[in-house]
Write a structure and sequence with these properties.
five-stranded mixed beta sheet, 7 helices, single chain, alpha+beta, Ubiquitin-like (UB roll)
Length: about 210
C-alpha cells in the first residue's frame, strides 16, 4: 500500500510540473502574441544573440561599421536597422525587383539576399554614398528629367545606372536595357529612366 501511495504522489507531482510548464508556455504565448511584428523580430534576435551573433565589420560609404548581428542576416537589414541608412529599400526579399541594389566593390548587387558574412570588410556603397549633395551625374539627371513618381524603387534604379556609367561612359540603348533589366518600377517610369541615363552619360561619373 505504501508503494502504491508513493507512486501516486510521485505521479501527481509530475502532473503538477507538467501543468505548470504548460501554463507558463500559455502565458508567454499570450504575451508574445500581443507584441508587434517589429518587437517579435527583436525578441527573436535577442534569443539568438547568445549563440549565433557575431561582430562583423561592414565598410559602407568609406566608413567602418562593426555590427553585432546574425552572420546570415541579409545585408539590407544590417544597412537599414543597424547602420541606420534608410535610402536602400526593401522590395521583394528574393532579389527580383532591384529596389535594394547597392554596390559591392563597384558591382551592383541585391542586398536583400546577400548575407552580411559574405561582405565583411568589402567596399559597399549605398545611395547615400554616391554624393553628399546630389551632385553625382545620375542624381542630377534624375532631377532634371523628373524621373520618380512614387519614388520607392528609385534608389535601386539610380545605383544600377551609376554602376553602368562607371564602366561604360557612353552606353547604347541596348546597353542600358541590359543593365536595367530586372529593375522593376511599378509606376512605369522606364522612358524617363532611360532618358536620364542618356543625359548622365554626357558627363562621365567619377569612379567609386
Amino acid at each position: 500500500m505504501k508503494t502504491l501511495w508513493a507512486y501516486l504522489l510521485k505521479y501527481e507531482f509530475y502532473n503538477c510540473l507538467i501543468f505548470v510548464f504548460f501554463c507558463l508556455i500559455f502565458i508567454n504565448l499570450k504575451l508574445y502574441n500581443k507584441l508587434s511584428c517589429i518587437d517579435k523580430c527583436h525578441a527573436f534576435h535577442l534569443l539568438k544573440k547568445q549563440y549565433y551573433m557575431a561582430i562583423i565589420n561592414l565598410k559602407i560609404n568609406g566608413k567602418d561599421y562593426p555590427v553585432d548581428v546574425d552572420p546570415q542576416m541579409p545585408l539590407l537589414w544590417a544597412i537599414r536597422d543597424f547602420v541606420g541608412l534608410k535610402g536602400t529599400k526593401y522590395g521583394c526579399g528574393i532579389a527580383q525587383c532591384g529596389a535594394c541594389t547597392v554596390h559591392l566593390n563597384g558591382q551592383p548587387v541585391r542586398s536583400c539576399s546577400l548575407p552580411v558574412v559574405a561582405v565583411a570588410n568589402k567596399n559597399i556603397t549605398t545611395i547615400e554614398g554616391l554624393s553628399e549633395d546630389n551632385s553625382h551625374p545620375v542624381q542630377k539627371a534624375w532631377i532634371e528629367e523628373q524621373v520618380p513618381q512614387c519614388g520607392y524603387c528609385q534608389s535601386g534604379q539610380i545605383m544600377a545606372a551609376a554602376a553602368l556609367l562607371s564602366k561604360n561612359a557612353s552606353p547604347t540603348e541596348a546597353d542600358i536595357d541590359a543593365a536595367m533589366q530586372g529593375h522593376i518600377c511599378r509606376c512605369g517610369t522606364y522612358p524617363r529612366i532611360k532618358r536620364a541615363i542618356q543625359k548622365a552619360s554626357e558627363t562621365k561619373p567619377s569612379k567609386e
